[in-house]
Amino acid sequence: MSFSAVQAYALVATRVRAMYGSLQTRSEWERLQSVEDLYGFISLLRDTPYGAYLPALDEHTLTARRVEYEIRKRLADDFYSIYQNAPKAVQPLLNQLFRQFEVDNIKAVLRGLEIGEKYDRIRFMLFPMGRFPTLEYARMAEAGSISSAVEVLNGSRYYSTLSHALDRYHAEHSLFPLEVALDLDLWRNIWRLLNLLKGEDHVQALRLMGMLLDHTNLMWASRYKIFHHLSEEEIINYTLPFGVRVKDRLIRSVASGEDAIPLVAEIYPDLAGLLNEMRDPVRDLPIFEFHLQRRFRDTCQKTFLGDPFHVGILLGYLFLLEMEIQDLTVLLEAKSLGLSSSVYQSYLLFSAADEQIQPGR
C-alpha cells in the first residue's frame, strides 16, 4: 500500500470510528422499542444523530413515511463523506455501491408510473441522493409511458441496460425484466470493481461484498423459483454467474427444483438446524433470509476489531448504518400502526438484547 493510501486510511478510519460510535447503543434501542406511539418515537429520535435530519415541525404533522425519507439522508451524507476521504483506489467501488440506491429509485419511479401515481406521491419513497449526482426522477414520472421514461435516461449509465430490456417488458407487460436487468448490471460492476482492488483491500472487500453477493444471488434464485415459478433457464439467466461460496452448482440445484438444503447447509453449517426444520418454503424463506442478514451484521461489526487500514472498515460501517435505518423504518411503521412488540420484534436486525461491538474492544 502506498504512503498516500496509508495517510488517507489513517484519516478516514478515525472519522469512521467516530461515526460507528454514534450508532444506536443497547440502551437507546431499549428506549426506542419501549415507546408506545409514533409521536413519542419521533421525539426520542430527535435526541439521536438522526435529529439533525428531522424537519423542524411538530411531531403530529410528520408521517412515518416522511420521517423514513429524512433519516435516510444520514446514510447519503455519511456515504459521501467516506467516499470523498477514502483512498483513490477504493472510491470507484464505494461510488458503485451507492448506486444501489439510484437503481432502487429508478425501479420505484417506474412502478409508480406503471400504476399512474403522480411524482408528489412517489418522491418520499425515493432514497435521497444527497451530494451525489442524481437523475431526473420527476421527468421520468411524468413521461407518460415506461418507454418514454427510459428515454429520459438517455445518456446515463442505465440507458443501454434498460433499452435492451424494453422488448421483454412489452412482450410480458411486466416491469420484472427491466428491474432484473438493472440489478444484474449493478452487481456485475460491483464485482468488476472489487476485483480491481489489491492486497488487503481486496481481501476485506471480498469478505464483506462477497458475503452480501452470495446472499443476494441465493435469495434471487430461491424467490424466482418459489414465488415467481420461473423456469430453470430463466433462473439461470436472471442470477449472477459468480460468487464466493454460492457457486453455480447451488444456483442450478435451486433452479431445477432439486432439494438444495444439503448444499446450503454445507455453506452455512451454523444454520443447518434451521434449514433442516424448513417445511414451507413460502413461510420459511424470509426467516432464513433474516438469519443471513444477522450473520452479515455480525461480520460487519467484527470488521472494527482489526487493522483499520483497509476498505473493510468503511464498508462495515456503511452496511451497519443501512441496517440500523432498516430497523428504524420497521419501528416507525410499527409505531404508526400501533403494533405490539410481539408482532415486529422478529423483523429487527438489532434489538435491545444485542450488545454492540465497540471499536477497540
| Poorly predicted regions | 356-361
Strand content: under 5%
Share in helix: 55-70%
- The residue-averaged pLDDT reads 93
Radius of gyration based on Cα positions: 21 Å
- Distance between the terminal alpha carbons, to the nearest Å? 26 Å
Large-scale geometry: globular
* Number of DSSP-assigned strands: 0
Coarse structural class: mainly alpha
What does the main sheet amount to? none
Total count of helical runs of at least 4 residues: 18
Encode the helix/strand succession as letters: HHHHHHHHHHHHHHHHHH
What would your notes on this structure say?
The chain is mainly alpha-helical. The chain has helices at 3-21, 26-34, 38-45, 64-85, 91-114, 119-122, 137-141, 146-152, 159-172, 176-194, 199-226, 232-237, 248-256, 261-267, 272-276, 281-302, 312-337, 341-344. The longest helix has 28 residues, at 199-226. The protein is globular. It starts with a helix and ends in a 17-residue tail after the last helix. Mean pLDDT is 93; it is low at 356-361.
Features:
66% helix; 361 residues; single chain; mainly alpha
Topology, pairings included?
Layout: H1 3-21, H2 26-34, H3 38-45, H4 64-85, H5 91-114, H6 119-122, H7 137-141, H8 146-152, H9 159-172, H10 176-194, H11 199-226, H12 232-237, H13 248-256, H14 261-267, H15 272-276, H16 281-302, H17 312-337, H18 341-344
Helix pairs in contact: 1-17, 3-17, 4-5, 4-17, 5-10, 9-10, 11-13, 11-16, 11-17, 16-17
Please outline what is shown here:
The protein contains 18 helices and no strands. With 361 residues, the protein is mainly α.
